[in-house]
Description:
Helices cover about 10% and strands about 35% of the residues. It is mainly β. The chain has a domain at about 20-25 and about 35-100: predicted glycosyltransferase like domains (Thrombin, subunit H, Beta Barrel), CATH 2.40.10.220. It has a 6-stranded antiparallel barrel with strand order 1-2-3-6-5-4. A hairpin with an 8-residue loop joins strand 1 (about 20-30) and strand 2. It is elongated and about 65 Å long. Mean pLDDT is about 75; it is low at about 1-10.
Amino acid sequence: MGDMAGDMPLQPGKRIRKRDSLLLMGTIKAAGDYVRDTQPIRIRNLSSTGLMADSKMEYDLGACVEIGLKGIGLVEGEIVWVREGRMGITFRETIDPHRARRPVVAGSDENLLKVVDLGRIRRPGLRID
């Protein structure tokens, strides 16, 4: 009867949310710090509520940070652990982690094709014989 996930008590250090192992690039900076530039981070795993990342810059436990994620944008979070160049960050709001893995591509814009008549465009100086 104790095989159901809801029946088992949560053990300390065990995660509730599923995390996807991956390697994404992102950015980090202290929340509200407009003097320093953002720093690159390597995101090792990502879930809807947080991430683990490598960073050359160390942050203090409890520091509020802004994470830049491709496909999502800026996400606010808090540093919950730091060890040997890696850190764990918990997000203030949940995200859709699958959006961060989608390739960012330019969509076709039908309206631009209607505005520009491609048959009348010529490069200046181009001779057509």
